[in-house]
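User: I'm putting together notes for a lab meeting next week and I want to include a structural view of one of the chains we've been expressing. I don't have a solved structure, so I'd like a prediction I can at least talk through. The sequence is below, exactly as it appears in our construct file.
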Amino acid sequence: MPESTAPPRLRLPGAPLTFEPHSFARPRRKRRPHAPSGQRFHLWISGCQMNESDADYLTQGLTAAGFTAVGDVDQADIAILVTCSVRQNAEQKAYGRFRELKGWKQSRPGRAIAMTGCMANREKDRLFERLPDLDYRFDMREYETFIQDLQGEYETDPAQTGGAVLQHGLTAYVPAIFGCNEVCSFCIVPFVRGIERSRPLLDVIEDVRRFARQGVREVTLLGQTINSYRDPESGARLSELLEAVGQVPGIWRVRFLTSHPRHVHDDLLFAIRDLPRVCEHLHLPFQSADDVILKQMRRRYTRDEYRAIISHARATIEDLSVSTDVIVGYPGETEEQFMLTLDLLEEIKFDVV
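Assistant: Thanks for the context. Below is the predicted structure for the 353-residue chain, given as structure tokens.
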């Protein structure tokens, strides 16, 4: 495929993964007996922006490999569930959607169901025992080898659909860092997405360029703790990545999320203030305003330290928009501790909670 029409590729840092044919499918003795019914795929997405980004890269990779995306699952030959496990309700939704797909699969021989995302990563091949109608399970860190495996089984022709990767909306998510090192007590992310691994700055820029060629004008750089980004080759920080992304022709606006209070430094604030394409917005979860709860959460900052960060950011950046996340009903939280959180919300007056 010509470089000008090639889709963005989610190249992950670290040792390359080896490709083993059929390693993503149900064990052979339990494989589905019918040949694929066609080459159309449908995605069901649950969870955070990272899952939406994963689905975007997956769609582009499958399309480039000769598959056709369809919005109506009744027209599809393979349904792929991009799952979440941050909340129990998210897993219940995934299992519920899977149950709905059992009848869909049985209605036409050759249909298949695949699953990826955090829930699939956590459960691993146990899913094949739990879900007898599941045909494939894969980790998005291996999505290109999964597509290669699928391409051989479905005998697709990339020449038929390659041009479709040129179509995109005005906005796109671009991962810059994977995993998380914070190990907050309430969060499963480090266990399903691994430790922090920053993508090389040039890889991120190349993806932004390819999205821009597809018509994207606003990109959001993603990471569980995006402001701990460090280019593994040069050591460049998020501020330098924002500057480089803002220089890509065709990109009008740049955003980033999610940030952790411990990694808000002046170079980042100056980048938000001074770079013309970076939006004056900071998403900074505080989770609780009680120091005891914060310590139990392993957040490693206090209420007063958080207040000082917001005060300094607003003093540095005129008209800064600030959004946040809050957890209420944390195990053991008292009414008095809850009221401290309400007081901080009243004091800071976030734009979005």
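A couple of points you could mention at the meeting. The chain has a mean pLDDT of 89. The chain has two domains: 3-163, 164-348.

User: Perfect, that's what I needed.
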